[in-house]
């Protein structure tokens, strides 16, 4: 167990996003069995599995965190960037019941388990094209050449972004996403670019909506545009929901595929087991999700003062429910530091819980299962070149910068 001094040092490095192996810190925090106030991050950290699970269902912890963004802006910027905060307030991940229940219902009609089954042939076709392209090189970067293009194409297909405009759309969504991805005074610096991207995004969707209403397709833009014509959804809500679905589903799935591949390369005996038994891919993907959860922290804001596990939480405090720590809790997962592609049961919390449980979970699972199995079917002798995992300095996501792999595909 770490000493207090070690804990302070680790927390300082963690707050800067530079603790590339956060798991010893998580273990130390879990042993305290209570929420921990991090001065550096300005938030409560919650790390035990049952506490994180409880926090995800507790109505006293709300998803609406707009107040936190507003109070970080200067009074002048609060007025200047009002539209940006309004846009964010309609993201599903920032809504609470009863509004959340309606918006979620609209998305659920389209993003369901059935959609994942319907998308299977599209995923298969895409992955064959990606692997054929990769096969013309001896070495590839698994992030840019493999884990990136599949979820980008799939989420854009789901939304209804025209072929050839995926990158343009992604750039706008990313530029908006930088704003909610930050906390504190830095928001004043990132808001102008995000606000500009939002204006362009509105124009992008105005154009798409006109086209889809004239020529309806089986995609989410068509569905939401029809709801907006029926008066059930404002144009602003529609743009927010579409932007949110992209940001919720693209980077997360990319990271699931990339982190899973890295885990297999760094655990060769598990990789060989999967190559010999591709039918184990279902439990393997669940173990990728548990062991290196793409979303490490799920954020909430305290709605009202209350005491929780011996700590006094104040209205307006930020709370970070650390899914990445909960998923290594020894009280729930036997031998939690062991990466085991056959782990059963595996009730990880990587897709959240309760009212906000991930709508795209079935789709993300299918994409990762097909991508990983097809990769090793084509390149069973591939080897990792990157000596140590190149984690990016972000605390909320487990995101690799590069993952160089030699394909060794000349028979
Ligand atoms: C490995 C990939 C993914 C991971 C790890 C992941 C994780 C999560 C988590 C933890 C939440 C809950 C957030 C909260 O409680 O505030 C969530 C919500 C959500 N996810 Fe995912 N997600 C993934 C892929 C996807 C995909 C592919 C889509 C879309 C097709 C998607 C759409 C959503 C939506 C719409 C929500 C909001 C649900 C709500 O607030 O009611 N996700 N996701």
Topology:
Blueprint: H1 4-15, H2 23-31, E1 36-38, E2 43-46, H3 49-57, E3 61-62, H4 66-72, H5 75-80, H6 82-89, H7 99-108, H8 113-134, E4 139-141, H9 142-147, H10 149-159, H11 166-177, H12 187-214, H13 220-229, H14 235-266, H15 268-276, H16 281-291, E5 297-302, E6 306-308, E7 311-313, E8 318-322, H17 323-326, H18 361-378, E9 383-384, E10 404-406
Parallel strand pairs: 2-8
Antiparallel strand pairs: 1-2, 3-5, 4-10, 5-8, 6-7, 9-10
The chain binds protoporphyrin IX containing FE (HEM).
Model description:
With 411 residues, the chain is of the alpha+beta class. Helix content is 55%, strand content 8%. The chain has helices spanning 4-15, 23-31, 49-57, 66-72, 75-80, 82-89, 99-108, 113-134, 142-147, 149-159, 166-177, 187-214, 220-229, 235-266, 268-276, 281-291, 323-326, 361-378; strands spanning 36-38, 43-46, 61-62, 139-141, 297-302, 306-308, 311-313, 318-322, 383-384, 404-406. Strands 1-2-8-5-3 form a 5-stranded mixed β-sheet. A 3-stranded antiparallel β-sheet has the order 4-10-9. Strand 1 and strand 2 (43-46) form a beta hairpin. The chain binds protoporphyrin IX containing FE (HEM). Protoporphyrin IX containing FE binds next to helix 7, helix 14 and helix 18.
């Amino acid at each position: 167990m770490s000493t207090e001094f070690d804990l302070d040092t680790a927390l300082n490095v963690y707050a800067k996003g530079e603790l590339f192996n956060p798991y010893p810190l998580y273990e130390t925090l879990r042993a305290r069995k209570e929420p921990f106030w991090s001065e550096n991050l300005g938030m409560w950290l919650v790390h035990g599995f049952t506490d994180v699970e409880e926090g995800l269902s507790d109505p006293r912890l709300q998803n609406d965190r707009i107040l936190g963004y507003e109070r970080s802006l200067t009074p002048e910027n609060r007025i200047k960037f009002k539209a940006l905060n309004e846009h964010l307030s309609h993201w599903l991940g920032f809504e609470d019941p009863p509004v959340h229940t309606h918006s979620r219902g609209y998305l659920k009609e389209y993003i369901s388990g059935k959609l994942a089954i319907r998308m299977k042939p599209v995923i298969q076709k895409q992955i064959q094209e990606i692997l054929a392209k990769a096969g013309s090189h001896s070495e590839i970067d698994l992030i840019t050449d493999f884990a990136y293009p599949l979820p980008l194409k799939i989420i854009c297909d789901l939304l209804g972004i025209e072929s050839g405009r995926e990158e343009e759309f992604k750039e706008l969504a990313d530029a908006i996403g930088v704003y909610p991805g930050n906390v504190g005074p830095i928001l004043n610096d990132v808001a102008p670019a995000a606000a500009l991207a939002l204006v362009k995004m509105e124009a992008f969707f105005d154009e798409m909506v006109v086209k889809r209403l004239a020529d309806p397709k089986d995609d989410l833009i068509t569905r939401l545009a029809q709801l907006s014509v029926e008066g059930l959804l404002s144009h602003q809500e529609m743009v927010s929901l579409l932007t949110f679905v992209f940001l919720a589903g693209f980077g997360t799935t990319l990271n699931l595929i990339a982190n899973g591949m890295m885990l297999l390369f760094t655990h060769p005996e598990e990789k060989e087991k999967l190559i010999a038994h591709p039918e184990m891919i279902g439990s393997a993907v669940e173990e990728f999700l548990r062991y290196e959860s793409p979303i490490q922290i799920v954020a909430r804001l305290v709605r009202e003062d209350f005491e929780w596990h011996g700590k006094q939480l104040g209205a307006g405090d930020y709370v970070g429910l650390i899914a990445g720590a909960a998923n290594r809790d020894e009280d729930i997962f036997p031998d939690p530091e062991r990466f085991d592609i056959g782990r059963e049961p595996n009730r990880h919390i990587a897709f959240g819980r309760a009212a906000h449980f991930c709508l795209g979970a079935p789709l993300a699972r299918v994409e990762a299962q097909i991508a990983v199995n097809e990769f090793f079917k084509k390149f069973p002798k591939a080897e990792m070149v990157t000596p140590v995992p190149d984690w990016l300095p972000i605390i909320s996501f487990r995101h690799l910068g590069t993952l160089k792999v030699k394909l060794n595909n000349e028979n």
